[in-house]
Amino acid sequence: MAESDDGHHIEIVPDDSTWGGVEENVEDPEEVRVIFSALDSFFQYSKVSHFNVTHLRRQAFYALPQEQWKLLAAPPFNFLETLDKTDDAIDENAELARIIARFGLQSFRMMTTDPEGKEPTMPQEWAGVAKHSDVDKARSTIRQFYRDWTAAGATEREASYGPIMKALAAEKERHPDTPHLKVLVPGAGLGRLVFDLVANGYTAEGNEISYHQLLASSYILNSCTAAEEHTIYPWVHSFSNHLNRANHLRGYRVPDIHPASVLAATPNTGEMSMCAADFLCLYSDEDHEAQYDAVASVFFLDTAPNLIRYLETIRYCLRPGGVLINVGPLLWHFENNAPGNHGQDTDVEHDPKSSSGIADPGSFELADDEVIALLEKMGFVVEWHKTGVDAPYIHDSESLLQTTYKASTWLARKPLDVTSS
């Protein structure tokens, strides 16, 4: 398994019986802290969710005048019963969260074992280290299983991943002598697009900076034993905008397919890998120069504080003639952040040779037409561009609040004459 100074690699390569997992030791103290914060947040999900979602509501409920709470406790409202069912749903989510955390502890070999040797637990010095923001990410990760790994999420996967697949199919026709086009998926999340690419005959590499996402994707791809093994309740954390309680408390089976079984039954699959790393640091090194036939960007480019750096890195790691295929909105993640060095305090002038990656100073936000202009200024050839493409994201179709991105989709090619870029 390859080791990088910039990232902890997770090789996910199916063989006859098993998938590889996360095996390397992590020595950087800050990275260890980040990993344990992510692991602990999955363990804390249950306690925090029960407190925020049901405990505080019970307190508020019993603060009502007695005649009012008795009215709401009786049919047809049965509000206390709703809170009990909500607790049950949180327990189901929490079971998946704990399994992800235990799998992560085993994978990173950072666990302790209880006296009876039953299951891995957090080392005592790291228990409780997760902050509220970490637990929020764990909750968001559980909800994201709806998008990537449920049958109901197929509609929004088609909206976001369908244009990628269609564009890559056209690229495959352009390269009939290349058996497996090599595709990089930055911001790979829970890994479904990477998996689908491999199942369709591409060699796909996912990159993800979030350990919450990596731990969850590694579990579902490596260790989940069957389709529909778990049930998640993605809408349970909020009581707003529900048409009825049945929808509020609706569960979805995860995963909709068993990844290992699908690949074992599919001929001519590509190879798959996932890595945890800062995209800018890892893919700007000389080992990644001109290595990919395509970069598939789905809801990714707007995570850039500095889009120029993202596009420079993509241009660098694409082969001449390679393509950047994009689907997504422009919800700039660092908008309104204080100026400076994202996450680092320093007055030292930025040195490109010692880049901190996404933490480098400086940021800006562009409109969609300006993104296209920037692509062209940087030497890409924009071959097609569509706007207004409906792209829901963890979308509850039964909610009274409907929010759907109108995504921009386009394909930009790195010229064969690299000197022109």
Query: Unreliable segments (pLDDT under 50, ≥5 consecutive)?
Result: 1-23, 343-352
Number of domains: 1
Q: What kind of assembly state do the chains in view correspond to?
A: single chain
Q: Could you state the order of secondary-structure elements as H and E?
A: EHHHEEHHEHEHEHEHEHEHEHEE
With strands numbered from the N-terminus, the spatial order across the biggest sheet is: 1-8-5-4-9-10-12-11
Which secondary-structure class do the elements indicate? alpha/beta
Strand-residue fraction?
Answer: 15-25%
Q: For this structure, what is the CATH homologous superfamily?
A: Vaccinia Virus protein VP39
Mass-distribution shape: globular
Rg of Cα set = 23 Å
Q: What gap, in angstroms, lies between the N and C termini?
A: 34 Å
The total beta strand count reads 12
What is the third-level CATH name, the topology? Rossmann fold
CATH architecture: 3-Layer(aba) Sandwich
What is the CATH top level name? Alpha Beta
- Major sheet: 8 strands, mixed
| pLDDT averaged residue by residue | 89
Helix count from the secondary structure assignment: 12
Q: Please estimate the helix content.
A: 25-40%
Protein name: carnosine N-methyltransferase
EC number: 2.1.1.22
Pfam families: CARME (PF07942)
GO molecular function: carnosine N-methyltransferase activity
